[in-house]
Write a structure and sequence with these properties.
The complex is a heterotrimer of chains A (about 325), B (about 550) and C (about 230). Chain A is built from twelve helices and no strands. Chain A has one domain. The longest helix of chain A is centred in the N-terminal third of the chain and has 33 residues. Helix content of chain A is about 70%, strand content about 0%. In chain B, strand 1 and strand 2 form a beta hairpin. Chain B has a two-stranded antiparallel ribbon with strand order 1-2. Chain B has one domain. Chain B is built from 19 helices and two strands. Chain C has one domain. Helices cover about 80% and strands about 0% of the residues of chain C. In chain C, helix 1 packs parallel to helix 8 and helix 3 runs parallel beside helix 10. Chain C is globular. Chain C starts with a helix and ends in a 13-residue tail after the last helix. Classes of the chains: A mainly alpha (about 325), B mainly alpha (about 550), C mainly alpha (about 230). At the B-C interface, helix 6, helix 7, helix 9 and helix 10 of B face helix 6, helix 8, helix 9 and helix 10 of C. Chain A: It is a multi-pass membrane protein. Chain A: Its main location: membrane. Chain A: Keywords: Membrane, Transmembrane, Transmembrane helix. Chain A: It is found in: Membrane.
Chain lengths: ~325, ~550, ~230
């Protein structure tokens, strides 16, 4: 058991780590094809990272340790979270620790580190976008917590693998109003957390609109590579979490090599599909004005809360 | 029941007539109104003004401006409006004779039912409708002369008033609480256009507020009705009888207390909105001040009490299911708040029609207080107060409408010396006198019946225990404030020297008889209830004054 | 129909019903609001039909279809017609857009969404005794009906466009009807007919009043109705 379990954990980290830049490249490719461009190819993010790693990291004058450790911390928290979340298998040595609250806190820690780094540079852009990022985060974190909490009520635990196992065994849970509302809420929250349209535009550097990009303006070289990789990891992780929670079919619930291999293929397919849908949607959507973002997030918070209440009251007594 | 042989059909007829006759009349008026209008088959009210022009004339905007020569035709259908009030009165009287010692008549498998309360309310509705409809032709002729109404809109006015009467009578004679709700909501719908009849900015505003607030409020009452129905079904009452008032009263002790409590609270709030009680009262002064005077008379005189009669019915159920204290606390709180609000706003009032509207709120809160006290004396006084207030307030509103036509203003400050203005505008003293006497009645001076009923409520309140004693004392203090405000303002309007430049107005005569009749009836009720005494006691007993 | 499937469908329908109310609160475009309201009418009709199929009562299915025709067909049609009447002669002016949007609600959208969350919790708290009286899948969903009632009331109070208020009133009414279906499988037929007729007439009246308001005030902003006061 333990070999397969450890292999699953390692597999999760490796697949997400290697796949995250590929996913980003894949999404960019889908987008450029839809817009009628040839695109740079799926491998372009990897090439970018290799190029950046070859350059010297520059630390602006007057910045402290917060600026320097933020990229490493971002990647580290995301990797730990990746190890915990049941992406490929629910039966891993660490599944006992894969608590919902731990995962959300790890993701929040990465966000916080980056916001602190933005503040640390002392530039106007860094401070501004750090404050925007924290505003968004303040609304997103409770939404994620509530949405997954809604799913944890039928399972009776906040342990993520247990929730996923329950959903695999009893698919009716997902078609309940709680499941649908939580899906919608979590989808919006994931968009906001990963800085995608309509909350933020990952490919702009226009000072009026950007949130995430302004925090990392001062990074260069290897640090920038880490920051970019961190962002890509988070996107993959959250999309993976979304697919595990709401389309858990195929995830290995027992320790066997065949199910694990099948889970690997299915996971890649699911995440690629989600990424393609997201990229296609981004072509057609416009970014919401910054003042309307809290509205969107309050809406998703409300959906999550409705999910909790309906999951508690509609089927709670039965 | 007096004649059992002919009983079935005759009682069915008696019960149906008060609602059916006005409805038929409304239909006829609507038909005539449609046929009087040129080709357009169904005229949306919004375009009626233009459509009313003779065919061939260019459809220029003449909605507000009078035609070249404002010929005031004595409307042929004007006196026919008196048929339905007369029918309502006669049916009310006959039903009263049948049920004055208790008991009830019912027909159409329990859908319609008359007990003493029904008969009493029918009599009040009929009397007030008689005053209003008797006064309406003269008033509308005045409006037409001033160019504020067309021949067309007159037909629509009559049709809507008749439909209004039908809805109120249905609300009174039905035993099904669901139908009761439907009828009360129907009164909102038909009166909406009556409130907005003049189509000015203010009247459209009043109509909008009226419909939105009343519909939303009454929707709460429907939610309450649904909850009571739920509780009744759970208590094992069959579907057909679960909204039947007598059945519910008989089995009220089996209703689930928690659900009933929620339902009754919603019902009191909802029907309270229609009865002008806090917290959904905001429509009342606007609607009453903007509606044509005879409609204000009907709305203030009986619509408020018809809505309150629904609360009286539900209170019996609530008392049997939850004990007396629940409705008592609820109604006392609402009554005191309404009274305080009305008294406060009366102090600052500068518009005499709004002043009368707030006075209606004051009287409704007294009625609510009397209901909260709930002893036989209090309930009899409440019923008497409903009748007295209906009569006096309708006279006051009709007279105020005439004063408005004569002086052209609703500001209290601009109306002076109405009584001494004697010869100049021929019609002034009569409505002014009626207005003065009606306000005196509303101030509860003897010999008018409001004196007796307020005294009754106060005595019952002090007799009911310390808590209610204090409440009654507070209420009396507030009534005193309202009294002072109302008296001072009315005195300013009526007494004193007439202003030199009294506006010359048309010399149409005012119809005085409905006003005189109303005042006389109010005074007569105050001196002796005569043959109605038994009915009053039976009605008080029917709503829980054992 | 098996019990678990029935419960499942009932829950999904109720969820959609509540979600529609929330989206009404979310959107600003009146046209979109009316569309969502029509969808809510469909959910309400589905609820009635579902209950009828479960209890094998054909009259209830008939009522459900009637309700669907009224709430998803006639009422949205009336509101949409009023909306079209408001905009048709305003195309050339800059004010054309403001008539069809809820630009300045009394409470901004984010805050009203959070308020809706609180109202939902309140509805759950209030409806505890109702559910306790007879816990079935249908009565367990009662809070949904009450929540929609409260949200409708909130829309009615905070929205400043005349037609948005109309939709608020209709939400309130949908909520009450849903409560009636969930609690007792609907009120007696005669009452249901009377209520539907009343609601239809009320909307007609409000539609005509909206037109008159535009004629008298030049706008349908409720904030402009301030001539009557003490």
């Amino acid at each position: 058991m333990s070999t397969v379990g450890y292999a699953a954990v390692a597999g999760q980290i490796v697949v997400v780590g290697a796949g995250a830049p590929l996913l980003t490249g894949w999404m960019r490719q889908v987008r450029s094809r839809l817009e009628g461009r040839a695109g740079a190819g799926v491998l372009q993010p990897w090439r970018d990272i290799r190029k950046l790693l070859g350059k010297e990291a520059i630390t602006p004058a007057g910045t402290g340790p917060a600026f320097r450790i933020a990229p490493a911390l971002l990647v580290a928290t995301t990797v730990v979270a990746t190890a915990l979340v049941p992406l490929l298998s629910t039966d891993t040595p660490v599944s006992g620790h894969a608590d919902l609250i731990v995962v959300v806190a790890l993701i929040a820690l990465g966000t916080l580190a980056l916001a602190l780094a933005g503040l640390d540079t002392g530039t106007a852009f860094g401070g501004m976008s750090a404050s925007r990022e924290m505003t968004v985060a303040a609304l997103v974190e409770p939404t994620i917590l509530l949405a997954v909490f809604a799913l944890s009520i039928p399972a009776g635990t906040t342990n993520l693998p247990a929730i996923v196992t329950g959903a695999v065994e009893e698919p009716a849970r997902l078609a309940s109003p709680a499941g649908l509302l939580a899906t919608a809420a979590l989808a919006v929250a994931v968009l906001a957390e990963t800085g995608r349209i309509p909350v933020d535009n990952p490919s702009t550097h226009l000072e009026l609109t950007m949130i995430h990009e302004a925090m990392v303006l001062e990074y260069a070289g290897g640090d920038l590579a880490l920051v970019e990789l961190g962002a890509q990891l988070r996107l993959t992780l959250l999309l993976g979490l979304l697919s595990s929670l709401f389309a858990p079919w195929g995830i290995a619930t027992s320790a066997s090599w065949t199910t694990l291999a099948l889970a690997l293929v299915l996971f890649a397919a699911k995440v690629a599909l989600l990424g393609a849908v997201l990229a296609a949607a981004e072509v057609f959507w416009a970014k919401v004005r910054l003042f309307r973002v809290p509205e969107l997030l309050a809406g998703s918070f409300l959906l999550a809360l409705l999910a909790v209440t309906s999951s508690y009251f509609l089927s709670g007594g039965s | 029941m007096p004649h059992l042989a002919a009983g079935a059909t005759s009682s069915a007829l008696l019960l149906a007539a008060p609602a059916v006759v006005p409805l038929v009349a409304a239909g006829m008026y609507a038909l005539i109104g449609l046929r009087a209008s040129p080709p357009v088959a169904v005229v949306p009210p919004a375009r009626r003004a233009v459509a009313a022009l003779p065919a061939g004339e260019a459809p220029v905007l003449v909605a507000e401006a009078p035609g070249p020569e404002p010929v005031v035709v004595r409307h042929p259908g004007a006196w026919a409006t008196l048929v339905s009030p007369a029918v309502i009165l006669v049916c009310g009287g006959l039903l009263a004779a049948a049920v004055r010692y208790g008991g009830a008549l019912s027909a159409y498998s329990g859908l319609l039912r008359a007990d003493a309360l029904t008969a009493w309310m029918l009599l009040v509705v009929g009397a007030v409708a008689l005053i209003s409809c008797g006064f309406a032709p003269a008033y509308m002729a005045g409006e037409q002369a001033a160019g504020r109404a067309t021949d067309q809109s007159l037909w629509h006015y009559h049709a809507l008033v008749q439909a209004f009467l039908a809805a109120m009578c249905l609300a009174v004679v039905t035993a099904n609480l669901g139908v009761l709700w439907v009828a009360v909501e129907a009164t909102t719908i038909v009166t909406a256009f009556l409130v907005g009849h003049r189509r000015t900015r203010t009247s459209v505003e009043a109509a909008w507020k009226y419909v939105v607030i009343c519909s939303a409020g009454i929707a709460l009452a429907f939610l309450g009705t649904v909850l009571i129905y739920y509780a009744a079904r759970q208590a094992g009452i069959a579907e057909a009888w679960a909204l039947d008032w007598p059945t519910l009263v008989a089995r009220a002790d089996r209703l689930d207390p928690a659900v009933t409590r929620l339902g009754i609270t919603l019902i009191v709030l909802g029907f309270g909105a229609k009865a002008g009680l806090v917290p959904l009262h905001a429509w009342l002064p606007d609607a009453h001040s903007q509606a044509p005077a005879p409609v204000s008379a009907l709305m203030s005189g009986v619509l408020l009490s018809v809505a309150f009669a629904a609360i009286l019915r539900y209170r019996v159920i609530a008392n049997a299911a939850l004990g007396v204290d629940f409705t008592r606390v609820l109604l006392t709180g609402i009554a005191l708040l309404t009274l305080a609000l009305a008294a406060g706003l009366l102090l600052a009032q500068r518009d005499y029609k709004r002043m009368l509207a707030y006075s209606s709120m004051e009287h409704m809160s007294l009625i609510a207080l009397g209901t909260a006290i709930g002893s036989p004396l209090a309930l009899s006084a409440v019923l008497l107060h409903i009748a007295g207030h209906g009569l006096a307030k309708s006279v006051a509103f009709c007279a105020s409408g005439r004063i408005l036509q004569l002086t052209g203003t609703v500001r209290i400050g601009r109306v002076r010396g109405l009584l001494t203005r004697a010869p100049a505008p021929a019609g002034a003293p009569a409505p002014a006198g009626a207005f003065g006497l009606a306000v005196v009645a509303l101030l509860a001076f003897p010999p008018f019946s409001l004196f007796a009923s307020e005294l009754g409520i106060a005595r019952a309140g002090f007799a009911a225990g310390t808590g209610l004693g204090w409440v009654t004392a507070a209420a009396l203090l507030l009534v005193l404030i309202a009294f002072a405000a109302l008296a001072a303002r009315t005195a300013r309007m009526l007494l004193g020297p007439a202003p030199a430049e009294a506006r010359p107005t048309g010399s149409e005569t005012t119809t005085v008889w409905p006003l005189a009749l109303g005042l006389a009836a109010c005074a007569a009720l105050g001196m002796a209830t005569g043959p109605l005494t038994d009915l009053l006691h039976a009605a008080a007993q029917a709503i829980g004054g054992h | 129909m098996s019990d678990s499937l029935y419960t499942q469908l009932l829950d999904v329908t109720c969820g959609a019903f509540l979600l529609a109310a929330v989206i009404v609160l979310w959107r600003r475009e009146l046209a979109a609001i009316v569309r969502v309201f029509a969808l809510q009418g469909v959910a309400l009709a589905a609820l009635a039909v579902l209950l009828g199929a479960h209890e094998e009562r054909w009259d209830l299915i008939g009522v459900g279809i009637g309700i669907g025709a009224l709430r998803a067909g006639a009422l949205p049609y009336l509101v949409r017609r009023a909306l079209a009447a408001l905009t048709e002669d305003r195309q050339g002016y800059a004010t054309g857009g403001t008539e069809t949007r809820e630009t300045q609600p009394l409470v901004n959208v984010a805050a009203s969404l959070l308020t809706a969350a609180l109202l939902t919790l309140l509805a759950y708290a209030v409806s505890r005794p109702l559910t306790d009286l007879e816990p079935t899948p249908a009565t367990r969903a009662l809070p949904v009906g009450l929540a929609v009632v409260l949200i409708g009331f909130f829309v009615l109070v905070t929205r400043r466009r005349a037609l948005a208020q109309v939709v608020g009133f209709l939400l309130l009414d949908n909520g009450i009807t849903a409560t009636a279906f969930l609690a007792t499988s609907g009120v007696p037929l005669i009452v249901e007919l009377g209520v539907s007729f009343d609601v239809l007439l009320a909307v007609l009246v409000l539609q005509i009043l909206t037109t008159r308001m535009r004629e008298a005030f030049g706008t349908t902003d409720i904030d402009d109705l301030r001539e009557l006061h003490d």
